[in-house]
Amino acid sequence: MKISNIILATVSMLIFSLAAGSSLAQSGIPGAEAAGQWDITIETPDGQLPSWLEIKTSGNQALVGRYVGAAGSARPISEIKYDEQSDTYSFTIPPQWMQQYPDPHFVFALNDGTLSGWTIGPDGNKLEWTGVRAPSLVRDEKPEWGQPIDLLDQDLSQWIIPKNNQFRMENGILVNPEAGGNLVTKQKFDDFKLHVEFRYPEGSNSGIYLRGRYEVQIADNYGVEPESHYIGGIYGFIDPTVNAAKKAGEWQTYDITLSGRMVTVELNGTEVICNRPIPGITGGALDSNEGEPGPVMLQGDHGPIEFRKIIITPATNR
């Protein structure tokens, strides 16, 4: 895309955002000022957990949305209730993959452009949280690519090794024989191209986190209908257009380009996602600081996986 076209697109998005904001202000829906996408940090006794919330207007009467917790994937919120008397919002959603009692419940308020509130944790105790508006991450120029960096060496010198690590190098191949810790690069990246060659046994599951926040799914899904939770998808957000997976046990390739929120994914030489925006963080993210660079993270806590090439090419003009 030419730079003039990028600038035009940016201006168009700004005009659209201003018009949308004006439309929300005039919608007459109580609480519509909170509409948008929010990067959330939940305070727990064991540290901070990232989450993500989207609030949208529905017709001229209701607020709805989506929520991503510290685990799992984006799930719909059928109604976000707004109490004009207390100036607070609330919603409840059922548990997803893990059993949680009671159902996650959220209460919050909007003050000075920031959300703050509480939720019910799995143990039934209240957890305080705050939310800031997610950055647009719109780029006003094309990326200029630097030198490729080979992330694999015999000593795994470019990775932070977790305590429960199962990853190791065997004959030049990074092997994770069983569920263990997640492998995170020491270096953080903004925009980049990533080439990965990987292989998994039958029934296995893993993933690659871009900037440590957006999971590109790896799983044994040969021959099934494409879906965001399956191989080739941005977990819970973007479906691949086709299922280009090979059978378990065969070497496969990912070629991924991330610029701002825009992601392109090629699986085994087939473009399965073409320059689509990632709405927000996916479950399992390291943090919700979307405006900052982040590492590459390899998911090691699910199943066996092997990597024989991981090469990243950062953009130099970010």
Give the topology, please.
Layout: H1 3-25, E1 36-44, E2 47-58, E3 62-68, E4 75-77, E5 81-83, E6 88-92, E7 105-111, E8 114-120, E9 126-133, E10 149-150, E11 159-160, E12 168-170, E13 173-176, E14 183-185, E15 192-199, E16 205-210, E17 214-219, E18 252-259, E19 262-267, E20 270-277, E21 297-298, E22 305-314
Antiparallel strand pairs: 1-2, 1-9, 2-3, 3-4, 5-6, 6-7, 7-8, 8-9, 10-22, 11-14, 12-13, 13-22, 14-21, 15-18, 15-22, 16-17, 16-21, 18-19, 19-20
3D architecture notes:
The protein is globular and about 65 Å long. The relative contact order is 0.17. The chain has a nine-stranded antiparallel sheet with strand order 4-3-2-1-9-8-7-6-5, with no helix packed on it. The longest helix has 23 residues. The chain starts with a helix and ends with a strand. It is mostly beta strands and 318 residues long. The N terminus is likely disordered.
Give me a quick take on this structure.
The chain is mainly beta and 318 residues long. It is 7% helix and 41% strand.
Attribute tags:
318 residues; mainly beta; eight-stranded antiparallel β-sheet; 1 helix; disordered N terminus
Low-pLDDT regions: 1-26
Helix content: under 10%
From the helix content, strand content and strand pairing, which structural class follows?
mainly beta
Q: Which series of helices and strands comes N to C?
A: HEEEEEEEEEEEEEEEEEEEEEE
Q: Kindly estimate the percentage of residues that lie in beta strands according to DSSP.
A: 35-45%
Mean pLDDT: 91
What's the overall geometry? globular
| Main beta-sheet annotation | 9 strands, antiparallel
> Order of strands side by side in the largest beta sheet?
4-3-2-1-9-8-7-6-5
Quaternary class: single chain
Q: Report the radius of gyration as a whole number of Å.
A: 20 Å
Distance between the termini: 17 Å
Number of helices: 1
Tally of DSSP β-strands: 22
